[in-house]
């Protein structure tokens, strides 16, 4: 090896080292930036969790607050109704009809609906609950509803109380 | 420089390069791991946001569902009450008192309370709203409550309706 060659080789190696050091600096920065992104994301998530818990509590409180507010006029009507009682402790039905309407309106506002059930309708276990059975000869179809014993109610698509009914079955 | 020295120097440089390459591999892995941590955190956060929106909706629905369920027996009582009316369309007060109690019990369960207000109490604008004023000579203190005109209600610490009152003021 002549001296020029030796120098060239050493220079090449030194340049290589320099370039590798630059690469290391770059990677160090990149790794640090990625770590910082992660740490920031983690902190944001913690904040989000805290906010969420608070928001859930607020949502529940707000829903209740609204519906409870709606019932205050009904309380007033009851008090008014009592003031209008006769000496025999009787109350004219009009006031009670009015209160009933107020109650229905509030519940309707929140989408609570009476499940409409016709007599002679076929029993549908997704909304009816048969609590008594009567056997007869002249029934066309089994499980026909004879009487609604207690009304049922539905909120959006969820049955809150099943309609209690008596059904007819064919005598064998 | 003798040949041994040259070889030693070149060997040192090559070893340095090897060690730098190892360092680069390590940093590449580290940076990649940090990036993956960040990406996973970001995905978790997106999921959390989606779950949160759903949870908030559920919470609100669940709060309403519970309270609406509680009102179903009151609907039954109204219907029962109507069945018991006399021929003169009068209703015995007992049924109405019972319904009033049912309503109060439900509202009490959700912490809605009547704001208790005594006559001769000092007006407190955090819960009272004076809607009429009477001027008199013999008033000890201004803004003494004369009469409660409409009841007020409080839910937890929040006034849902202020107590409407008439107040007394000294005649000058």
From TrEMBL, chains A, B:
Q: Which GO terms describe its biological process?
A: protein folding
Q: InterPro entries, from UniProt?
A: GrpE, GrpE_CC, GrpE_head
For this UniProt entry, which residues form the secretion signal? Answer: none
Name where it's found: Cytoplasm
Chief location of this protein? cytoplasm
GO cellular component entries: cytoplasm
Gene3D superfamilies, per the entry? 3.90.20.20, Head domain of nucleotide exchange factor GrpE
> One Pfam family name from the record?
GrpE
**Domain of life of the source:** Bacteria
**A GO MF term:** adenyl-nucleotide exchange factor activity
Q: Which residues form a coiled coil?
A: 3-30
Query: Does the keyword Translocase belong to this entry?
Result: no
Which UniProt keyword terms apply here?
Answer: Chaperone, Coiled coil, Cytoplasm, Stress response
Q: Which PANTHER family does the protein's record reference?
A: GRPE PROTEIN (PTHR21237), GRPE PROTEIN HOMOLOG, MITOCHONDRIAL (PTHR21237:SF23)
Q: How does it assemble?
A: Homodimer.
Q: What does this protein do?
A: Participates actively in the response to hyperosmotic and heat shock by preventing the aggregation of stress-denatured proteins, in association with DnaK and GrpE. It is the nucleotide exchange factor for DnaK and may function as a thermosensor. Unfolded proteins bind initially to DnaJ; upon interaction with the DnaJ-bound protein, DnaK hydrolyzes its bound ATP, resulting in the formation of a stable complex. GrpE releases ADP from DnaK; ATP binding to DnaK triggers the release of the substrate protein, thus completing the reaction cycle.
User: Record's family?
Assistant: Belongs to the GrpE family.
Supply the name of the protein.
Answer: Protein GrpE
What organism is the protein native to? Candidatus Azoamicus ciliaticola
The root-end lineage is: Bacteria, Pseudomonadati, Pseudomonadota, Gammaproteobacteria, Candidatus Azoamicaceae
